[in-house]
Design goal:
It is a single chain. The chain is α+β, with helices and mostly antiparallel strands. It folds into three domains: about 1-60, no CATH class; about 65-255, no CATH class; about 265-335, no CATH class. It is built from nine helices and 15 strands. The protein has helices spanning about 5-10, 15-30, 35-45, 155-165, 170-185, 200-215, 225-235, 245-250, 265, and strands at about 65-70, 80, 80-85, 100, 105-110, 120-125, 130, 140-145, 220, 270-280, 290-300, 305-315, 315-320, 325-330, 335. The protein has a six-stranded antiparallel β-sheet, with no helix packed on it. Strands 4-3-6-8-9 form a five-stranded mixed β-sheet. The longest helix is centred in the middle third of the chain and has 18 residues, at about 200-215.
Length: about 350
């Protein structure tokens, strides 16, 4: 292909080039390609009947290459904790790599090139140990988090407070100010390894943030919303020990911490709540004292929600007959468990 011909094709001077570009843009549009991709197709298509093979065009969106992020998970140094990319719910995105912290609380996480700006999480479980409190297991499962700023990223209670503040609608500067108000120092870096630099004040505050949260929440899993609400309550109060469950509940009322759920999606398949092993009691007849597993079947059909009480027999479930005939018997009092009654309370969100 001659140089002047290439120039005229690229800049769209010749009528033949204009016609070809119009066709290629239509093809690109049909395949969801941008204008830049159409230009690449134009360049790849020049040359008429020339038998010379043109070099392959470079894709406009090459696949992201992988890199790695290193750092420490810190309350004290957290050993045997999972590190992962956030799934939007304070858990792990199953489509991206995960790793575990080693015996020093350090981790190396494989990551896409566009990892900067993404949230990464540390999942603390009863199997996780804190090197600052060896031999004292965690009695809760909860998440600490940070937003990746580079190839090295520590994850601490203070970075978790920053994430929580931003998710609640505060600016990054306001979130940093909240951290510094809590530590009493304008030089506090939320992502710093405060243990390594022997910052005993920040070390004590970070440990208190976690211990007070687990004390208020009790044993078992602490939801990501509860973690964020606790962190934001610390920021609002400017203290840790002064925060009580009422303060956390006030933060939970922030709609930014709630996730909208489409009922049709949630009920695409039936949902069940378990009443327990109950006895059958039909009014006017003697009760049957053999216990049967009973559940409620919630099924959405169009816009109609039906709730059916079901009993299990020989490993299979079928509607209770008559409906509402299975009851609980406590201290000589009968408690009706008709369809849709006596189940776990469902929150509005």
């Amino acid at each position: 292909m001659k140089k002047n011909q290439m120039n005229s094709d690229i800049y769209g001077v010749t009528p033949k080039s204009n016609e070809r570009k119009t066709r290629l843009k239509a093809i690109a549009h049909a395949f969801g390609l941008g204008v830049g991709s159409a230009t690449l197709l134009t360049l790849g298509g020049c040359g008429g009947g020339d038998s010379t093979t043109s070099p392959a065009a470079t894709p406009s969106n090459p696949p992201a290459q992988s890199t790695s992020i290193t750092g420490k998970a810190i309350d004290g140094y957290l050993v045997n904790a999972k590190v992962c990319f956030d799934d939007g719910q304070g858990g792990c995105d199953a489509s991206l790599p995960t790793t575990m912290t080693d015996g020093t609380g350090s981790y190396t996480l494989d990551a896409p090139r566009d990892a900067v700006g993404r949230q990464i999480n540390v999942i603390v479980t009863p199997q996780t140990s804190d090197l600052s409190n060896p031999g004292v297991p965690f009695n809760s499962t909860f998440t600490l988090s940070a937003v990746v700023t580079g190839g090295s990223q520590n994850i601490t209670p203070l970075t978790t407070l920053v994430v929580s503040q931003v998710k609640a609608g505060h600016t990054q500067a306001e979130a940093l100010q909240a951290v510094q108000n809590l530590t009493g120092s304008t030089s506090t870096d939320p992502g710093a390894d405060y243990i390594a630099v022997r910052d005993t004040n920040t070390t004590a505050i970070a440990a208190s943030m976690v211990s007070h949260m687990t004390t208020l929440s009790g044993q078992g899993p602490i939801s990501w919303a509860q973690v964020q609400a606790t962190m934001n309550a610390y920021a609002a109060k400017g203290s840790i020990d002064g925060v009580q469950q009422a303060d956390i509940n006030a933060q939970l009322a922030n709609l930014a911490l709630s996730t909208a759920v489409d009922a049709a999606t949630a009920l695409a398949d039936p949902l069940y709540t378990v009443n327990g092993d109950l006895m059958q009691h039909v009014i006017g007849q003697p009760p049957t004292f053999g216990l049967s597993p009973i559940r409620e079947n919630f099924t959405l059909s169009g816009s109609t929600l039906s709730v059916v009480q079901e009993a299990q027999s020989n490993g299979s479930w079928s509607p209770a007959t008559p409906i509402g005939s299975y009851d609980a018997f406590f201290s000589s009092s009968w408690i009706s468990l008709s369809g849709g009654v006596g189940n776990y309370e469902m929150k509005a969100d």
